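In this section we walk through a basic example: taking a raw amino acid sequence and producing a predicted 3D structure, encoded as discrete structure tokens. The instruction is simple. Fold the sequence below.
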Amino acid sequence: MATVSAPTQAPAASPPPAALLPASPHLRLLAGLGLVLALFLAYGIYTLGQMRQLRQFQSHELERSRRDTLQLLRIQEDAYELTLAVSDMVSSQPRVPLPVWRANISRLRRDMAHALRREAASAPAARGADERAQLLRALAQFWNISHQAFHLSSQGFARQAADLVKRELAPQGSYIHNLIARWMDRNARTEARTEAAMQAIYGGVSRNLLLLEAILLALAAAIAVWVVRANRASFAQVRGLAQALDERSHALADANRKLLTVQEATLQRVARDLHDELGQLLTAQGLVLARAQKQLAPMAAAAESAPDADLQQARKLGQEAQHKIRGLAQLLRPPALDDFGLLKALTSLADEFHRRTGIETRVEGTLPFVPDDAAIHLYRIVQEALTNAARHAQASCVVIELRGQGRSYGVRIRDNGRGLAPGAGPGKGLGLAGMRERAQILGGTLELQSQPTGLCVAVDVHG
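The resulting token sequence is shown next.
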């Protein structure tokens, strides 16, 4: 037998308009963050450049000047020591043999030559070739005088050698000493300027670091103020959006309630028209066919024809149509609900469900008085749950458990079917949205409880 199921799916909520959605993040925040990153990058590049300049000062200027000063001191000390050695050599003749002085003088000359080579490698660029040539000429003349004094002393002219040392070698040594002293003084001034430049770089980096920190603090404060204001604006916008959505939700709920009310009223009117008008017409048709059958019975017997069988078949078709119309009216709006109340209507629904599906169905418990406008919603929930049990659960037994106390009541529709798969949701296409909507109209809740023995649809209404 064909069945008609009342529509229970509530209309889906429309998405909020684009004007109510929160705005995208403001570009000022991105600009502020970009400015902070640019400042960090610029200061990093600046600091790297300053550190490179410091390393250049330290390695190329300061260290080279210090190495050059050390070699100049070495040359100066060798020249002074050589002057003393030649002077002692002349004055000690003939007590000390000349070969003793020769070895010492040769050692000092080798050491001075080595110091000159190293000093040339570390000499500053400001010292020109003329100054170096002047030192080399002074040293060559110093060696020449030393050689002459050594030669005179070796030939027995000790007094002439001493005069030569006193008259020429000592002043030449003093000249070399003063020349190197001027170079060392210049190196000292260069070192002082280099250290001052390094201190200036350190001071500049420190000041710029403090300035960067101040700028970053100011930017952070500005961004924080902007973020607070933006958050307040966003929260206000979200509150407005939530309020608008809440109003829309309430409006949609009201529309759903009105739709369901109009739907039930329409179904009730259609069921009444089917039952009262079309049913009465079929009943009248059956009476007319019965009367025609009685009138045609003698004529059919005399004519040996079968009009009586045709009339009988027409009466059966009319009765079957009347029975189907009564079933459709029962599905659209159960008469028992209006005539005898919800408990009787549910009992009749369970019996009809058992006859139609073969699934054992029984009603247990009682309900307090439920108004007609609420009873139809509870009836539709039970009707939808039974339909789902027959279509999806593969159950062999369904129990409709009624409970109530005071103004609170509830219904449990339990089946011994498959239940919900582990980890699965409530599923789609089960009319769950419509059942929940009807439960909300009643002021209650609806839950699906998956149990080891099947599925339980629980409806609770708190008065």
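Looking at the output, two observations stand out. DSSP finds nine helices and five strands in the chain. Strands lie at 360-365, 397-405, 408-415, 444-451, 454-461. In the next section we compare this with other chains.
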